[in-house]
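ok trying this again, last paste got cut off
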Amino acid sequence: MNKKLNDFLNYIKGKRVALLGFGISNSSIVDFLLGADAEVTVRDKKENIAGRDGYEARGVRFITGEEYLSGMDEDIIFRSPGIRADTPEIAEAIARGAVLTGETEAFCSLFAGRIYAVTGSDGKTTTTTIIHKILTEEYRDADRKIYLGGNIGFPLLSKIGEMSENDIAVLELSSFQLSTMKFAPHAAVVTNITPNHLNWHRDMAEYIECKKNIFRGMTGGRLVVNDGNDITRDFVNPAGETVRFSSKGKPRGKSVYLDGREIFFCDGENRERIMSLDDIKLRGMHNVENYMAAIAALHGEVKTESILAVSRSFGGVKHRIELICEHGGVKYYNSSIDTSPTRSIAALVSFDEKLIVICGGYDKHIPIEPLIPVLSERAKAVFATGQTGRELAEKLVAYGGAEKPAYISYTESFDDAVRSALAYAAAGDTVILSPAAASFDAFANFEERGERFRATVKEYIEREK
């Protein structure tokens, strides 16, 4: 056992620990905490919690309902990422001496191996997955485990006792998680920053500052930033090297860039060809940039053959421009992970043909105006739904561009919007769910929304047979 973990287990023994929110991350560490002889209290706004009786039988206390944060007197607080750290009850507990942390934050402070951390407004899930797959390919015959966690994979703190200093963790980190984190990853990647989660953050400035926490604590290593993004272009590693990537020209200094259809790494003077765009199975320039970010993070640590083995075989993450099926000459794509206008724009421009688009959802207070001209040009028909759908449909109808979708509609119900889009499609068409919004107005998360779309498509096809 590594010394940091051993010291933590000794420290937490007998301490009162609060789990604020009982979602995936916090529910995963109950066994870890109970095994360390901590006194665990779950605080959650929801009254009905799956498995509650079993947890209570093991000594876990539950405080639920609207007043779940009242009287917080625990020694250590594990915050679910979606709960702001400056909530008054949390601030009062910290003032009394409580220690605030989170599952991923605690893992980063205790893990003895190398951490590759990825954040960004768009592309972070795919980039994190690519880095994980390349490292797995590189070390497949070595005595080294490559873990995937943070915002994807599984919560890693629950498995930290099984890990060694020889292992590697690849983490996707959201602005919610990063808002209170201070750590020093081996490599940090910022794919891009565009307006997002402005319903949670006070403003764009706070959102950017949270993202910067991914590299603020670095003591060396490598920071990778997108030179084509106005916000990230000037980010600099405070204690190590900075590598920039761009699909729009060669950045200054160390960089990964696109020249024609070839991707190169440049050490500042000499360049090395890494791959061709033809080596990338995924569609879209945004995925080219995802590979460029991964190459920038891993260059010098993995062989080019490992990169190519992944790029030629990896078909993409679930819910991201995912081809569900083709039936009757119609292709059906699930891109439920498109939770912002910029993500939907990237998805739409990766197709050559005009699309039947299902969009709209939970309002994160992100301007939708940049999406309107792209939808107008790229969509054959638009079926809008959810909180943002009405405004989107109205702006699309009012847009004065030369091209417009042949059909635009708004339906409050997600299911009705999907069924209408499926009925509209004919042989030769492509239907895509690309919401440009979060899912919380109708679903627990974007995964549930994507699975509902998949099920509805399959039900529709079965009826048509």
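PB: full thing came through this time. Residues 10 and 104 are 20 Å apart (CA to CA).
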